[in-house]
Every structure is written in structure tokens, then in C-alpha cells.
Amino acid sequence: DNIEQARLSRELATIETDVPIDTDLDEMRLKGPDNTRLVDIFKELEFRKLIEQITPDNPAEGSYGIIATKKDFDRLVDSMGKHGCWAFDFETTGTDPMSCDIVGVSFCWKPEQAYYISFVASAGAFFDKDYILSQLRPLFEDKDIKKIGQNIKYEMVLLRNLGILLKGVIFDTMVASYLLNPSKPNHNLSDICLEYLGY
After folding, report:
1. What is the pTM of this model?
2. Quick one: angle between helices 129-141 and 70-82, nearest 10?
3. CA-to-CA separations, 101 to 54, 104, 105, 159, 160, in angstroms, rounded
4. I want to staple 159 with a disulfide (CB 3.0 to 4.6 A). Which of 83, 98, 164, 191 is the partner?
């Protein structure tokens, strides 16, 4: 009585082996992902760990120098005084600016070029904390030199503890990150670099 359904069932269960397929098998080979598009998608979805896995470990080529001599330091201070705007960031031994010690400070006023001054004595490197601070004080206190930083309130407290009043602050990258995305869980420099610079 159900011969037509039986024939249909047989037809549906039969693999067709003569279907014309016009496909180049080489085009079907597995290729690597489009990392540029992936990073954009991962940024939008805030998949930080996945972004880290597909972005390069090192930043773009540039000139990043450590100030190793007094002569280099004096030259740096002279250059900083001539520039109307620069970014800076202190490295410290802790997260409490009231009790931590300074390890070093970096300065930048030009893309892909920055300088680091160590506050820790090491073999052969220039180190004189009092001299460094005495030369940097007028620059930090000059309201006409515009300053940019990450969590600059921390730097203000740190410098005030050293008797230096930071003036001329115009931008804080941490505050900017928060304003762009208040629901983001982290606004630290590593996350911001990953999100906006890709490393």
C-alpha cells in the first residue's frame, strides 16, 4: 500500500555520486585567519586574551633609549624644555603613591621615540636622584609645558611627596579610556595599548 513512500525513502537515503561539482580543491584548503578583521571583532567583543594571542609581541619599530650618562640626561632636559607638550610615566615599587619609591620615569613627545631615566643605581649607568629631580622640577612645574599621562592623579601625588607641584596637565589616558567605555573592567595601560594600538 505504501510503495511510493518506500521508493521516496530509498531515494532520500541514497547518496548521489554523479552530481556535477565545479570546484577547485586547492581553493578549499584551510587558510590562516584574517588577523586584521579578527582583531577588530575581538576588540568589539572585548576578547582581550584572544587579541593577545594574535597580535605581535613587540611594538612598532622606533627609538627607545635609556639615559645612561649625565651628558645624555642634560641633553634630554634641554630638549624637554623646548617642547611644548610631552607624555611621561613613572615606574614605582608599588601602587600606593604615598609609600612607594620611584624606579624610573619615561618621557615621549614624538611618535615611536621615548626615553627612560632610571632611579636605581646600576653598574656604569648615570644615577643621581637628587640631581635628576632638581633638573626635572622646573619642567614639571612649568604650566606652559603641557603634560599627558596614564592615571596622572597618581603621578601628582607621587611628585607632591617629593615637593614638586605638577602643572600643565592636559590629558589622562586612563580617564579617556573610562569616558569611552565606562563598563570596561580594566583601564590599565596594557589593555589600552592592546585595544587602541594593537600591541
Report:
1. 0.71
2. 0
3. 36, 9, 12, 11, 13
4. 164
Q: In this structure, which amino acid lies at residue 3?
A: I
For residue range 172-192, what is the model confidence (pLDDT) as tens digits? 999 999 999 888 888 888 888
Percent of the chain exceeding pLDDT 70 equals 94
Rounded Cα distance between 103 and 122, Å, is 12
Of 128, 133, 138, nearest to 80 by C-alpha is 138
Report the alpha-carbon distance of residue 74 to residue 135 in Å, rounded. 8
Strands 102-110 and 169-172: unpaired
The amino acid that residue 25 corresponds to is L
Per 3-state DSSP, the chain is made up of helix, strand and coil in percentages (nearest 5) of 45, 20, 40
Interatomic CA distance for residues 130 and 146, integer angstroms: 24
Retrieve residue 178's grid coordinates. 573610562
**Residue position matching grid coordinates 586547492:** 26
End-to-end CA distance of the chain: 71
Residue 168 near residue 107 (C-beta atoms within 8 A)? no
